[in-house]
Amino acid sequence: MTQPPGPGSDPAPGPPAGEPPLGPAAPGESPLIAPHGSWDSPLSAEQVARGTHVTAAHFVDDEIWYSARLPDQDGRTSVQRRRPDGTVGTVLGGRWNVHSLVHEYGGGAWTVHETADGPVLYFVHLDDQRLYRLSPGADGRDSGKPEPLTPPSGGRVRYGDLTITGGTLWAVEETHVEARRVAGAHGEPHDPAAAVSRRLVALTAEGMRPVVEGTHFLAWPRVCPDGTRLAWIGWDHPSMPWDGTRLYTARIADDGSGPRIQGDPLVLAGSDAESVLQPEWASSRRLMFSSDRSGYWNLYAVDPELAEARAGLVPELIEVLTPPRDIGGPLWTLGARWYGFAGPGGALLAESRHGTSQLHWLSPSGEARELETPFDSLVLADVHPAGRHALVIGAGRHMLTGLYVLDLLSGEAEAVRLHAPEAAMDAGYLPEPYEETFADPETGREVHAVVYPPRNPRHRGLQGELPPYLALVHGGPTAQATVGLHPHHAFFTSRGIGVVDVNYGGSSGYGREYRERLRGQWGVVDVADAVTAVRGLVAQGLADPERLLISGGSAGGWTVLSALTSTDVFAAGASYYGVAELSAFVTETHDFESRYIDGLVGPLPQARELYERRAPLNNLQRLATPVIVFQGMRDPIVPPSQAERLRAGLEEAGVPYAYLTFENESHGFQRPASIVESLQAELAFYGRVLGFETPWNHLIRLRGRGR
Asked: Could you list the residue ranges that cross the membrane (predicted)?
C-alpha cells in the first residue's frame, strides 16, 4: 500500500497567491516573533503542487529520452527527448498518457527500439491500456500518429515491464475477467487467480504471443545475448515480491511465428523466504541477480548452462559483492533497476543504505569501488553502454530532486529535468535534514528516521516555546524515507513545524531483518516506532510533547489511525487514503495486495479475531484525538469504502474530525488542485487543533465532538 509520488516533488517559482515574496531578514532586522505553525513562508501549496515528476529515462543514441508527469495537464505523463545541443522536444504529446496499470501501480510503461531508420517508441496508454508504437523520426518533428498493436479490451488487458531484445518486444500481460472479484468461501479472501491472470508475452507479426505462464505474478523477462535463453522472476500468493520470489530460466526458440519455451523451466534461485530481483545477462553464460538470502539484497551470478547440466542439484551461486550490500528494494513498480552493465564488463550498482544511496562501480575483475556523487538519495534510471555516464533521478540535502546525467569519472551531475527550477525559493527557508537513530527506552530497539527542523530566517517562536513536530509515516509499509530536499516537508518546516520522517520497522534500506520486524505486527511495531521517534525528539528538548502530530498515506494512514486509537501521544493526525479495517479491505482491494495482510497480520480465517482487534475502526471508543481524513474516490487500492466506514464511525463516536474527498483522484493525489487543497487543509486543521492561525482556516469544518 504505497502511493505514486505526486507531481509536487519540488517547488516552482513564485510567491503564494495574494502574498508578497519573502526574503531573509535584512541585516540588523530582528526576526518576527510568532507561534510555531503560523510563520509566513514563501513556499506555497501551489508551488509544491506545480512541480513535474520524472518517472523513467533512457539513453537513446546521443539523446536522453524521459517520461515526465505534467501537473498543468492533470498529471498526464508525456515522453520527451533532450537532444545533444540541449534543446528539448516532445515525443508524445496531445492526449497521450503513458502509464501502465499492471498491479495497479504499473511500471515499465514505455521503451525504445533503436533501428537503422531511427528510434521507435513502444508505450502503454493509460486510458485503454493498449500497446502502441510510434516512429517519431530523427528530429522528432514528424511524429505521425501512434499505431495500436493490441486490440481494444476496455482496459481489461494491460501491459507493463516493456523491454526490447533483438528486435522483439517482451512484456508482462495482465488480464482481468469481467467479474473483478470472485468471492472466497468460509470468509477467506476472494480467489485472485480467478479474477486476474498474467503471462509473459512477445510481440510478433501475428500479435502478442504467450510465452510463459505458471505463476500468478511475473516480472523482468530477459533474453540472453545469443537469444537462446529467457530468464524471469515469478511468485505466487500469499507472497509479496519482497517476501519470496524465484528466478527461472528456460531455453527458447523461434518456430517461425515467435519465441516459445523448450522444455520445463529451471529454478536457479529463490524460495518463499528469499526475495530475488532484477535478473540481467552479463553474457549468455553469466546471469546476475539480486537476492536477500544473506539478509541484504546482494548481487549474485549463476551459469544457467552449468545449472542445467547439474539438474537435480542446487545451482552454484557466486556472491559478487562482499560484504553484502542492499542492491535492491521493494518491487512496487515493474521494471525497477538497481544496477546496469556498461563498458567492457563493468557494472554500476545503486546501494540503499540507511535512508541514503551510494553508487558503486563494479570492475570486470569483480572489485567494487564507491563513487563520489553529489546525491544523498537516488534511483538508477539507465547506464550508457560506453560506461562513462548514467541517468539518475536523484536529490540531496541541498539539491533539488530531478533527472540528472552523472559523469561517472568526475562525479559531476548535470540537470536534465529538475522537478522545479533551481531558483524556486530562497535556501534560507529550506530545512537542514539529518539522520537520527532513536532507541525504544523499554526494549532498546533502534528506530531510524530523518529529522527536518523548523527553519525560517524571518521568524522565531515565542519565548520558551518548543516547536510542534509532525511524524510522517510512509506507505508500503516497505517504502523508505530518504534524505533530500522535499518541498512537502519544507511547506511545514518553513512555517515552524518540525518534521520527522520515520523509517519504522518494516521499512526497506536496512536489510531483511529490519523489514521482518513488521511481520504479523502491523499496527503494533510501526506505531511503537513512530512513538519512539517523537518521544526521542522530546527527550532531546527539540519538540513540544503536547503538540506532536502524525500524518501518513495508504499503509501510513493505517499507522496514523492505529496510533491515534492505541496511544495518547499525538495531539492530531492526518490520514491520506488510509486503511481503517481489514476484514472488508482484503475482499475489496486489488489482486496484487489481496494477500498482503497474510504476512502483515496473519492469514484468514485463523487471524480473523486479530483483524477485528487491530482495526482502528473498531477502536474508535478509545479515540479523543481530532483526525482529518483525505480520500480519492477513484482509488482501487484503498477503496473509498474504507474512508466512508471511518467517517460513519467517527460521526457515531462523536470524535472531532474533518473529511475531504476528491472525486477525480486515485491512490496518491496527482492533480495540482487536489494537492493544494489537501496541504492547506492539513495545515489549517493543525492550526485549529493547536491554536495557531493560518490563511486557510475557512477550509476546515470540524465535525463531531468539539466542533
From this structure: none
Q: pLDDT digits over 630-648, tens only?
A: 999 999 999 999 999 999 9
Locate 183 and state its grid cell.
Answer: 468471492
* Residue 23 to residue 31: CA distance in whole angstroms: 12
Q: Is the pLDDT of residue 707 over 50?
A: no
**pLDDT tens for each residue of 117-163:** 899 999 999 999 999 999 986 555 546 789 999 999 999 999 999 99
Task: Identify the H or E element spanning 647.
Answer: helix 640-653
482 CB burial (10 A radius; 0-12, 13-18, 19+): buried
pLDDT for 5-58, tens place per residue? 443 333 333 333 333 334 455 555 789 999 999 999 999 999 998 888 999 999
Rounded to 5 degrees, what angle do the CA atoms 150, 151, 154 make? 115
Rg from Cα positions in the chain = 25
CA distance 429 to 418: 19
Positive/negative CA dihedral, 663, 499, 338, 266 = negative
Grid cell of 155 as nine digits: 482496459
Q: Distance of alpha carbon 304 from its chain centroid, rounded?
A: 32
Q: How far apart are CA 7 and CA 68, in angstroms?
A: 9
Provide, rounded to the nearest whole percent, the portion of the chain with pLDDT above 90. 79
Strand partners, 76: 70
Q: Which residue has the higher pLDDT, 257 or 383?
A: 383
Tally Cβ neighbours within 10 Å of residue 187. Answer: 12
Distance of CA 528 to the CA centre of its chain: 23
Q: How far apart are CA 99 and CA 106, in angstroms?
A: 7
ω before 477 within 30° of 0 (cis)?
yes
Q: 218-256 pLDDT, tens per residue?
A: 999 999 999 999 999 999 999 999 999 999 999 999 888
pLDDT bin (cut points 50, 70, 90) of residue 206 is confident
Residue 464 neighbours by CB under 8 Å, 6+ apart? none
Cα separation, 375 vs 394, in Å, equals 6
Beta-ladder partners of 377: 395
Distance CA(408)–CA(382), nearest Å, equals: 12
pLDDT recorded at residue 51: 80
Show Cβ contacts of residue 675 under 8 Å, excluding neighbours closer than 6 positions. Answer: 6, 7, 8, 45, 48, 49, 669
For 253-275, give the secondary structure using H, E and C.
EECCCCEEEEEEEEEEEEECCEC
Q: Is 141 exposed, middle or buried (0-12, 13-18, 19+ CB in 10 A)?
A: exposed
Q: Which residue has the higher pLDDT, 256 or 103?
A: 103
Q: Are the folds of 32-49+443-699 and 53-213 the same?
A: no
CA distance 685 to 630: 12
> Which is nearest to 580 in space by CA: 503, 489, 650, 674?
650
Task: Tell me which residue has cell 489549517.
Answer: 684
Global pTM reads: 0.92
Asked if pLDDT for residue 100 goes beyond 90, the answer is yes
Please compute the mean of the pLDDT values over residues 70-93 and round it to a whole number: 92
State in Å, rounded, how far the first CA of the chain is from the last one. Answer: 32
Class of domain 53-213: mainly beta
The x, y and z cell numbers of residue 559, run together, are: 499507522
CA–CA distance, 224 with 268 (Å, rounded to integer)? 15
Read off φ and ψ for residue 487, nearest 5 degrees.
Answer: -60, -30
Please identify, in words, the CATH class of the domain defined by 32-49+443-699. Answer: alpha beta
